[in-house]
Specification:
With about 400 residues, this protein is an alpha/beta fold. Helices cover about 35% and strands about 15% of the residues. It starts with about 30 loop residues before the first helix and ends with a helix. The structure holds pyridoxal-5'-phosphate (PLP).
Protein backbone atom coordinates (compact mmCIF):
# COMPACT_ATOMS: atom_id res chain seq x y z
CA UNK A 1 0.00 0.00 0.00
CA UNK A 2 1.46 3.35 -0.93
CA UNK A 3 1.02 6.37 1.32
CA UNK A 4 -1.66 8.89 0.45
CA UNK A 5 -0.12 11.59 -1.73
CA UNK A 6 -0.33 15.20 -0.59
CA UNK A 7 -1.99 16.05 -3.90
CA UNK A 8 -4.79 13.64 -2.87
CA UNK A 9 -5.10 15.14 0.61
CA UNK A 10 -2.29 13.25 2.39
CA UNK A 11 0.37 14.85 4.60
CA UNK A 12 3.19 16.48 2.56
CA UNK A 13 6.70 15.12 3.13
CA UNK A 14 7.98 18.67 3.72
CA UNK A 15 5.18 19.40 6.17
CA UNK A 16 7.01 20.37 9.35
CA UNK A 17 9.72 22.31 7.62
CA UNK A 18 9.60 23.62 4.04
CA UNK A 19 12.43 22.71 1.71
CA UNK A 20 13.33 26.39 1.22
CA UNK A 21 14.23 26.68 4.90
CA UNK A 22 17.11 24.22 4.40
CA UNK A 23 18.70 26.22 1.57
CA UNK A 24 21.76 28.39 1.98
CA UNK A 25 22.09 31.63 0.07
CA UNK A 26 23.73 31.44 -3.36
CA UNK A 27 26.25 32.78 -4.18
CA UNK A 28 27.94 32.28 -0.82
CA UNK A 29 29.37 35.53 0.59
CA UNK A 30 32.87 35.38 2.12
CA UNK A 31 34.10 38.09 4.53
CA UNK A 32 37.62 38.14 3.05
CA UNK A 33 36.11 39.05 -0.33
CA UNK A 34 34.50 42.16 1.12
CA UNK A 35 37.98 43.29 2.19
CA UNK A 36 39.43 42.68 -1.26
CA UNK A 37 36.59 44.52 -3.01
CA UNK A 38 37.16 47.54 -0.79
CA UNK A 39 40.90 47.39 -1.40
CA UNK A 40 40.36 47.34 -5.17
CA UNK A 41 37.76 50.11 -5.00
CA UNK A 42 40.14 52.36 -3.12
CA UNK A 43 43.12 51.49 -5.34
CA UNK A 44 41.37 52.67 -8.51
CA UNK A 45 42.90 49.69 -10.38
CA UNK A 46 39.58 48.30 -11.48
CA UNK A 47 40.61 46.57 -14.69
CA UNK A 48 43.49 45.85 -17.10
CA UNK A 49 44.80 42.64 -15.61
CA UNK A 50 45.51 43.74 -12.06
CA UNK A 51 46.76 41.77 -9.09
CA UNK A 52 43.75 39.48 -8.66
CA UNK A 53 43.37 38.65 -12.34
CA UNK A 54 47.06 37.74 -12.33
CA UNK A 55 46.57 35.51 -9.28
CA UNK A 56 43.33 33.96 -10.51
CA UNK A 57 44.52 33.06 -14.03
CA UNK A 58 47.17 30.46 -13.18
CA UNK A 59 45.26 29.21 -10.11
CA UNK A 60 42.09 28.46 -12.06
CA UNK A 61 43.99 26.97 -15.02
CA UNK A 62 45.78 24.64 -12.60
CA UNK A 63 42.51 23.74 -10.90
CA UNK A 64 41.14 22.59 -14.26
CA UNK A 65 44.36 20.84 -15.27
CA UNK A 66 45.25 23.31 -18.04
CA UNK A 67 48.37 25.44 -18.50
CA UNK A 68 46.79 28.79 -19.39
CA UNK A 69 43.61 30.76 -18.97
CA UNK A 70 42.38 34.00 -20.58
CA UNK A 71 39.68 36.00 -18.80
CA UNK A 72 36.78 37.78 -20.44
CA UNK A 73 33.39 39.39 -19.97
CA UNK A 74 31.30 36.20 -20.21
CA UNK A 75 31.15 32.58 -21.36
CA UNK A 76 29.68 33.43 -24.76
CA UNK A 77 32.52 35.62 -26.03
CA UNK A 78 34.97 32.96 -24.79
CA UNK A 79 33.41 30.52 -27.29
CA UNK A 80 33.51 33.17 -29.99
CA UNK A 81 37.19 33.94 -29.37
CA UNK A 82 38.08 30.24 -29.22
CA UNK A 83 36.48 29.73 -32.66
CA UNK A 84 38.17 32.83 -34.10
CA UNK A 85 41.55 31.82 -32.69
CA UNK A 86 41.20 28.42 -34.33
CA UNK A 87 40.47 30.06 -37.69
CA UNK A 88 36.83 29.00 -37.91
CA UNK A 89 34.58 31.25 -39.97
CA UNK A 90 32.28 31.54 -43.00
CA UNK A 91 31.69 28.27 -44.85
CA UNK A 92 32.68 26.13 -41.85
CA UNK A 93 30.34 23.86 -39.91
CA UNK A 94 30.47 23.43 -36.13
CA UNK A 95 28.71 20.50 -34.49
CA UNK A 96 26.79 21.29 -31.28
CA UNK A 97 24.24 19.41 -29.15
CA UNK A 98 20.51 20.17 -29.33
CA UNK A 99 20.27 20.59 -25.56
CA UNK A 100 22.39 23.52 -24.48
CA UNK A 101 22.26 27.21 -23.75
CA UNK A 102 21.98 29.44 -26.84
CA UNK A 103 25.60 30.60 -26.59
CA UNK A 104 26.97 27.25 -27.76
CA UNK A 105 25.26 27.65 -31.14
CA UNK A 106 25.30 31.43 -31.38
CA UNK A 107 29.09 31.68 -31.04
CA UNK A 108 29.59 29.82 -34.37
CA UNK A 109 27.00 32.17 -35.92
CA UNK A 110 28.89 35.23 -34.61
CA UNK A 111 32.00 34.11 -36.50
CA UNK A 112 30.00 33.41 -39.67
CA UNK A 113 30.05 29.62 -39.37
CA UNK A 114 27.06 27.26 -39.47
CA UNK A 115 26.04 25.39 -36.31
CA UNK A 116 24.98 21.80 -36.97
CA UNK A 117 22.65 20.69 -34.19
CA UNK A 118 22.72 16.97 -33.33
CA UNK A 119 20.98 14.67 -30.88
CA UNK A 120 22.01 13.83 -27.33
CA UNK A 121 22.34 10.64 -25.33
CA UNK A 122 19.08 9.78 -23.50
CA UNK A 123 20.79 9.13 -20.14
CA UNK A 124 23.47 11.84 -19.99
CA UNK A 125 21.71 14.56 -22.06
CA UNK A 126 25.18 15.26 -23.55
CA UNK A 127 26.04 15.13 -27.25
CA UNK A 128 25.94 11.57 -28.60
CA UNK A 129 29.27 10.66 -30.27
CA UNK A 130 27.45 8.48 -32.83
CA UNK A 131 25.39 11.45 -33.95
CA UNK A 132 28.56 13.56 -34.29
CA UNK A 133 30.08 11.05 -36.67
CA UNK A 134 26.95 11.02 -38.87
CA UNK A 135 26.89 14.81 -39.11
CA UNK A 136 30.47 15.28 -40.32
CA UNK A 137 30.84 16.75 -43.84
CA UNK A 138 33.85 18.15 -45.73
CA UNK A 139 32.90 21.55 -44.27
CA UNK A 140 32.99 20.41 -40.62
CA UNK A 141 35.77 22.10 -38.64
CA UNK A 142 34.88 21.84 -34.97
CA UNK A 143 32.81 20.11 -32.31
CA UNK A 144 31.55 21.89 -29.20
CA UNK A 145 30.47 19.28 -26.64
CA UNK A 146 28.70 20.66 -23.57
CA UNK A 147 28.93 19.12 -20.09
CA UNK A 148 25.25 19.75 -19.67
CA UNK A 149 23.93 20.38 -16.15
CA UNK A 150 27.38 19.07 -15.02
CA UNK A 151 27.01 15.61 -16.52
CA UNK A 152 30.14 15.02 -18.51
CA UNK A 153 30.19 14.28 -22.21
CA UNK A 154 32.21 11.27 -23.37
CA UNK A 155 35.44 13.19 -24.02
CA UNK A 156 37.80 10.33 -24.96
CA UNK A 157 35.31 9.19 -27.61
CA UNK A 158 34.70 12.73 -28.91
CA UNK A 159 38.44 13.50 -29.09
CA UNK A 160 38.98 10.22 -30.96
CA UNK A 161 36.35 11.17 -33.57
CA UNK A 162 37.80 14.67 -33.89
CA UNK A 163 41.32 13.31 -34.40
CA UNK A 164 40.13 10.82 -36.98
CA UNK A 165 38.51 13.60 -39.03
CA UNK A 166 40.98 16.44 -38.37
CA UNK A 167 38.49 18.52 -36.34
CA UNK A 168 39.09 20.68 -33.29
CA UNK A 169 37.21 20.27 -30.02
CA UNK A 170 36.14 23.25 -27.92
CA UNK A 171 34.64 22.12 -24.61
CA UNK A 172 31.76 24.20 -23.29
CA UNK A 173 32.39 23.85 -19.54
CA UNK A 174 29.87 26.49 -18.44
CA UNK A 175 28.35 23.97 -15.97
CA UNK A 176 31.44 22.00 -15.10
CA UNK A 177 33.84 23.96 -12.88
CA UNK A 178 35.97 21.47 -10.99
CA UNK A 179 34.69 18.39 -12.84
CA UNK A 180 37.03 15.62 -13.93
CA UNK A 181 36.84 12.64 -16.25
CA UNK A 182 39.32 9.81 -15.91
CA UNK A 183 41.23 12.03 -13.48
CA UNK A 184 41.61 14.85 -16.03
CA UNK A 185 40.01 18.27 -15.59
CA UNK A 186 37.32 19.28 -18.07
CA UNK A 187 38.44 22.01 -20.43
CA UNK A 188 41.74 20.19 -20.93
CA UNK A 189 40.50 17.48 -23.34
CA UNK A 190 39.86 19.74 -26.32
CA UNK A 191 42.02 22.50 -27.83
CA UNK A 192 40.18 25.07 -25.70
CA UNK A 193 37.85 24.92 -22.69
CA UNK A 194 35.24 27.65 -22.20
CA UNK A 195 33.91 28.56 -18.74
CA UNK A 196 31.13 30.94 -17.69
CA UNK A 197 30.89 32.72 -14.34
CA UNK A 198 27.39 34.09 -14.88
CA UNK A 199 25.23 34.40 -11.78
CA UNK A 200 23.62 30.95 -11.87
CA UNK A 201 26.84 28.99 -12.44
CA UNK A 202 28.81 26.85 -10.01
CA UNK A 203 31.39 29.59 -9.61
CA UNK A 204 30.23 33.13 -10.25
CA UNK A 205 31.25 36.76 -10.30
CA UNK A 206 27.84 37.91 -11.56
CA UNK A 207 29.25 37.68 -15.08
CA UNK A 208 32.57 36.52 -16.47
CA UNK A 209 34.22 33.88 -18.59
CA UNK A 210 37.54 32.29 -19.38
CA UNK A 211 39.19 30.08 -21.94
CA UNK A 212 41.61 27.39 -20.83
CA UNK A 213 44.23 25.86 -23.09
CA UNK A 214 47.60 24.10 -23.00
CA UNK A 215 48.75 25.78 -26.19
CA UNK A 216 50.78 28.94 -25.58
CA UNK A 217 50.39 30.26 -29.12
CA UNK A 218 46.62 29.70 -29.03
CA UNK A 219 46.45 31.38 -25.62
CA UNK A 220 48.20 34.42 -27.10
CA UNK A 221 45.76 34.58 -30.02
CA UNK A 222 42.77 34.30 -27.70
CA UNK A 223 44.20 37.04 -25.51
CA UNK A 224 44.72 39.34 -28.48
CA UNK A 225 41.24 38.59 -29.82
CA UNK A 226 39.61 39.56 -26.53
CA UNK A 227 41.90 42.48 -25.60
CA UNK A 228 41.76 44.58 -28.81
CA UNK A 229 44.93 43.08 -30.20
CA UNK A 230 47.24 43.43 -27.23
CA UNK A 231 49.34 40.52 -26.08
CA UNK A 232 50.31 39.44 -22.57
CA UNK A 233 53.33 37.50 -23.75
CA UNK A 234 54.59 39.95 -26.36
CA UNK A 235 53.51 43.41 -25.19
CA UNK A 236 53.94 46.19 -27.72
CA UNK A 237 53.89 43.88 -30.75
CA UNK A 238 51.36 43.90 -33.58
CA UNK A 239 48.71 41.19 -33.95
CA UNK A 240 48.42 39.04 -37.06
CA UNK A 241 46.42 41.11 -39.63
CA UNK A 242 43.93 38.25 -39.99
CA UNK A 243 42.69 38.68 -36.41
CA UNK A 244 39.57 40.78 -35.99
CA UNK A 245 39.99 41.69 -32.34
CA UNK A 246 37.41 42.66 -29.72
CA UNK A 247 37.30 44.39 -26.36
CA UNK A 248 35.94 41.74 -24.01
CA UNK A 249 37.86 42.57 -20.81
CA UNK A 250 37.15 41.33 -17.30
CA UNK A 251 37.41 43.48 -14.15
CA UNK A 252 39.44 43.22 -10.94
CA UNK A 253 36.24 43.07 -8.89
CA UNK A 254 35.24 39.88 -10.67
CA UNK A 255 38.75 38.45 -10.36
CA UNK A 256 38.84 39.00 -6.58
CA UNK A 257 35.42 37.39 -6.08
CA UNK A 258 36.45 34.32 -8.08
CA UNK A 259 39.88 34.12 -6.47
CA UNK A 260 38.24 33.66 -3.07
CA UNK A 261 35.58 31.29 -4.42
CA UNK A 262 38.32 29.14 -5.88
CA UNK A 263 39.90 28.89 -2.43
CA UNK A 264 36.56 27.60 -1.07
CA UNK A 265 35.74 25.56 -4.14
CA UNK A 266 36.95 22.26 -2.74
CA UNK A 267 34.55 22.27 0.21
CA UNK A 268 31.62 23.58 -1.86
CA UNK A 269 32.22 21.09 -4.68
CA UNK A 270 32.62 18.18 -2.24
CA UNK A 271 29.40 19.09 -0.48
CA UNK A 272 27.36 19.14 -3.69
CA UNK A 273 29.05 15.97 -4.85
CA UNK A 274 28.40 14.13 -1.58
CA UNK A 275 24.77 15.24 -1.44
CA UNK A 276 24.26 14.41 -5.12
CA UNK A 277 25.69 10.94 -4.57
CA UNK A 278 23.52 10.48 -1.47
CA UNK A 279 20.36 11.39 -3.34
CA UNK A 280 21.31 9.11 -6.23
CA UNK A 281 21.84 6.25 -3.77
CA UNK A 282 18.56 6.90 -1.96
CA UNK A 283 16.46 6.83 -5.13
CA UNK A 284 18.38 4.11 -6.97
CA UNK A 285 15.60 1.54 -6.75
CA UNK A 286 12.69 3.99 -7.09
CA UNK A 287 10.60 3.11 -10.16
CA UNK A 288 10.10 5.43 -13.12
CA UNK A 289 12.92 7.86 -12.41
CA UNK A 290 16.71 8.14 -12.48
CA UNK A 291 19.34 10.78 -11.88
CA UNK A 292 20.87 12.22 -15.05
CA UNK A 293 23.97 10.09 -15.68
CA UNK A 294 27.46 11.19 -16.59
CA UNK A 295 29.37 9.49 -19.44
CA UNK A 296 31.38 7.34 -17.00
CA UNK A 297 30.27 6.15 -13.56
CA UNK A 298 33.49 7.41 -11.97
CA UNK A 299 33.25 10.92 -13.47
CA UNK A 300 33.85 13.57 -10.84
CA UNK A 301 30.80 15.60 -11.63
CA UNK A 302 29.25 18.68 -10.12
CA UNK A 303 25.57 19.55 -10.21
CA UNK A 304 24.59 22.74 -12.02
CA UNK A 305 21.07 21.46 -11.88
CA UNK A 306 20.15 18.49 -9.73
CA UNK A 307 18.56 16.69 -12.64
CA UNK A 308 16.04 13.85 -12.63
CA UNK A 309 14.93 11.99 -15.76
CA UNK A 310 11.66 10.08 -15.93
CA UNK A 311 11.64 6.57 -17.39
CA UNK A 312 8.51 6.92 -19.48
CA UNK A 313 7.96 3.20 -20.08
CA UNK A 314 7.64 2.58 -16.32
CA UNK A 315 4.95 5.20 -15.68
CA UNK A 316 1.38 4.04 -15.10
CA UNK A 317 -1.23 4.66 -17.78
CA UNK A 318 -2.24 8.34 -17.86
CA UNK A 319 0.73 9.54 -15.77
CA UNK A 320 2.95 12.15 -17.39
CA UNK A 321 5.60 14.63 -16.30
CA UNK A 322 3.12 17.33 -15.34
CA UNK A 323 1.27 14.96 -13.05
CA UNK A 324 4.52 13.96 -11.35
CA UNK A 325 5.71 17.55 -11.14
CA UNK A 326 2.45 18.62 -9.50
CA UNK A 327 2.44 15.72 -7.05
CA UNK A 328 6.07 16.44 -6.05
CA UNK A 329 5.23 20.12 -5.61
CA UNK A 330 2.33 19.16 -3.32
CA UNK A 331 4.82 17.16 -1.21
CA UNK A 332 6.86 20.39 -0.90
CA UNK A 333 9.46 19.39 -3.51
CA UNK A 334 8.97 21.97 -6.27
CA UNK A 335 10.93 21.36 -9.46
CA UNK A 336 11.02 22.85 -12.96
CA UNK A 337 11.59 21.65 -16.51
CA UNK A 338 15.19 22.84 -16.98
CA UNK A 339 15.32 25.26 -19.90
CA UNK A 340 11.92 24.06 -21.03
CA UNK A 341 12.86 23.35 -24.66
CA UNK A 342 15.69 22.16 -26.84
CA UNK A 343 18.03 24.93 -28.00
CA UNK A 344 16.41 25.37 -31.41
CA UNK A 345 12.89 25.69 -29.92
CA UNK A 346 13.78 28.14 -27.16
CA UNK A 347 11.52 31.20 -27.21
CA UNK A 348 14.61 33.40 -27.55
CA UNK A 349 16.18 31.41 -30.43
CA UNK A 350 15.41 33.70 -33.37
CA UNK A 351 17.87 32.29 -35.89
CA UNK A 352 16.48 31.87 -39.42
CA UNK A 353 16.35 28.25 -40.60
CA UNK A 354 18.84 28.77 -43.45
CA UNK A 355 21.55 29.77 -40.96
CA UNK A 356 21.82 26.46 -39.15
CA UNK A 357 21.46 22.75 -39.81
CA UNK A 358 19.14 20.72 -37.62
CA UNK A 359 19.69 16.95 -37.65
CA UNK A 360 17.21 14.44 -36.23
CA UNK A 361 16.91 15.13 -32.51
CA UNK A 362 14.23 12.85 -30.98
CA UNK A 363 16.07 12.50 -27.66
CA UNK A 364 16.35 16.28 -27.25
CA UNK A 365 12.59 16.61 -27.67
CA UNK A 366 11.65 13.68 -25.45
CA UNK A 367 13.97 14.82 -22.66
CA UNK A 368 12.96 18.48 -22.69
CA UNK A 369 9.23 17.98 -23.21
CA UNK A 370 8.52 14.75 -21.35
CA UNK A 371 11.30 13.56 -19.07
CA UNK A 372 13.38 16.19 -17.29
CA UNK A 373 12.71 17.62 -13.81
CA UNK A 374 15.36 19.76 -12.15
CA UNK A 375 16.19 21.71 -9.03
CA UNK A 376 18.85 24.40 -8.73
CA UNK A 377 22.20 23.28 -7.32
CA UNK A 378 21.59 25.14 -4.04
CA UNK A 379 19.48 22.17 -2.87
CA UNK A 380 22.73 20.18 -2.74
CA UNK A 381 24.27 22.70 -0.36
CA UNK A 382 21.62 21.80 2.22
CA UNK A 383 22.03 19.06 4.83
CA UNK A 384 21.45 15.33 5.01
CA UNK A 385 17.92 15.72 6.37
CA UNK A 386 16.88 17.82 3.37
CA UNK A 387 18.33 15.29 0.93
CA UNK A 388 16.63 12.42 2.77
CA UNK A 389 13.30 14.23 2.69
CA UNK A 390 13.74 15.02 -1.00
CA UNK A 391 14.38 11.33 -1.68
CA UNK A 392 11.33 10.45 0.41
CA UNK A 393 9.12 12.80 -1.63
CA UNK A 394 10.42 11.33 -4.89
CA UNK A 395 9.94 7.77 -3.64
CA UNK A 396 6.43 8.47 -2.38
CA UNK A 397 5.22 9.99 -5.64
CA UNK A 398 6.96 7.56 -7.96
CA UNK A 399 5.80 4.53 -6.00
CA UNK A 400 2.23 5.68 -6.55
CA UNK A 401 2.72 6.52 -10.25
CA UNK A 402 5.18 3.97 -11.61
CA UNK A 403 6.49 0.42 -11.41
C1 LIG B 1 25.78 30.00 -19.28
C2 LIG B 1 26.24 29.25 -20.48
C3 LIG B 1 27.15 29.77 -21.44
C4 LIG B 1 27.68 31.17 -21.46
O1 LIG B 1 27.16 31.98 -20.64
P1 LIG B 1 27.34 33.53 -20.35
O2 LIG B 1 26.04 33.87 -19.79
O3 LIG B 1 27.64 34.21 -21.65
O4 LIG B 1 28.47 33.65 -19.40
C5 LIG B 1 27.59 28.94 -22.45
N1 LIG B 1 27.17 27.68 -22.54
C6 LIG B 1 26.31 27.14 -21.66
C7 LIG B 1 25.93 25.71 -21.79
C8 LIG B 1 25.80 27.92 -20.61
O5 LIG B 1 24.91 27.39 -19.76
Amino acid sequence: MSEKLAIDGGVPVFWERPLESYLKSWPIPYPETEQKLLEIYRSGKWSMCGKYEQLLGPAFAKYQGSRYSVWMANGTVTLECALLALGIGPGDEVIVPGITWLATAEAPLYVGATPVIVDVDPDTMCIDPKRIEEAITPRTKAIIPVHIYSSLADMPEIVKIADRHGLVVIEDCAHAHGCKQKGKGVGSFGKVGSFSFQLSKLMTAGEGGCCTTDDEELCDRIHRLSHIGSSRQHPGTTPDPSLMCHQYRFTEFQAAILYDQLAHQKEVFEKRKANGALLAELIRDVPGIQMQKSAYDDDERGYYFMTLLLKLDELHEGVDRKKIHDALAAEGFASFYGWGAPLYKSVIWNIPKEKYILRDTPNCEEIMYKRVLVKMHSVLLSDRECIEKSAEAIRKVMTAYAG
